[in-house]
Amino acid sequence: MNENDNTVSLESNRFISIDVFKGLAIALMVFVNTLTPFDMLPAWTHHAGEYGLTYVDLVAPFFIFMLALNFTVSFKRHLESSGRRKAYLRHLRRYLIFIGIGLFMFIDVSESGLVLRWGTLQVLGMSGLLFLPFAEVKSLIKLIVGSFYVILHQLLLFTTLNSVIYDSIEGGILGSLSWGAMMMFSAVIAEGLMKDIKWKHFLLVGLLFLIIGIITSLFWGISRGYMTLPYVFISVGASSILYYVIYLLFEQRGRNPIFKNEKILSPNGKNAFILFLLHIITLYFFYYLIPFSSILLPQDMKWVVIILVALLNVSIILLIGYFLDKKKIYLTI
């Protein structure tokens, strides 16, 4: 899908830091998803168990933060160019498409019929839908609504539904409350893009969320499976601090050619959606066509080969993103 007519809107007034952040999130997602099916890998390459935290647990929150950054810039632009009604309808359509494609891509066919599975795209779509009605309210209201979402979810964990949430992918539909809270908090921080106080928003506010998450974890465990409150706050804080570092390198010090002309992550950030879809194809290729189980290596060495294959998969996706950007081919929804 060639959108050369839309090149100006894609290339002008872009924050390269957002594209780099999105590209990094895609690269991390491809890496961890390639490793997911293999049990012989070290613990740090997988999600933590019932409680705990690894870097893998932060990849999905990076996508939520990415969604909030994207919304902040995109919504303002469409509000000014197309009006309020079209701006809301555009983003409503986007989030519904996320949910629809996610449900379609992961349909399971069993003897009892079709089974719809939850996944990352549905999480992004539901988070956006929970946030959209409050897109233009003040930051304080967003914080209150986000707090309501996450507290309501914590209350559900004290019921028999806690096992349903834990056994569901990404917490299932009920887990959307905590993901929605994450989106709401991330959107408050992302508002710093439109103001000249970026260092306050992305560093100090990120640290505040991180500290709250760490303190609350002392009496309420960190769990991605249950989507606990400490996990939500730590995820938002870590995402904000990571974006601050990227912003500092690529916006504040963008005169340095090393950062100004970055051509590895930022091209992939411009095509994050299509690369998300393409990486699922490459995952199937590596998992089903390469006989990892028959690799003639000691069992404790096979994980090295698998990690190398994961890095190869990341490289393939990055190359695809680079060539799509070079040809000015972008898929937007």
Span between termini: 12 Å
Low-confidence stretches: 1-12
Shape summary: globular
- Rg from C-alpha positions? 20 Å
Can you summarize the main beta sheet? Answer: 2 strands, antiparallel
Number of beta-strand segments: 2
Q: Which structural class best describes the helix and strand composition?
A: mainly alpha
Q: In which range does the helix fraction lie?
A: 55-70%
How many helices? The count is 14
Strand content: under 5%
Q: Overall mean pLDDT score?
A: 85
Tally of distinct domains? 1
The sequence of SSEs as H and E is HHHHEEHHHHHHHHHH
Biggest β-sheet: strands ordered side by side in the sheet? 1-2
Secondary structure layout:
Blueprint lengths: L6 H5 L4 H20 L23 H24 L1 H22 L1 E4 L2 E4 L3 H12 L7 H18 L4 H7 L8 H15 L7 H19 L12 H24 L4 H4 L5 H4 L2 H18 L12 H25 L7
Antiparallel strand pairs: 1-2
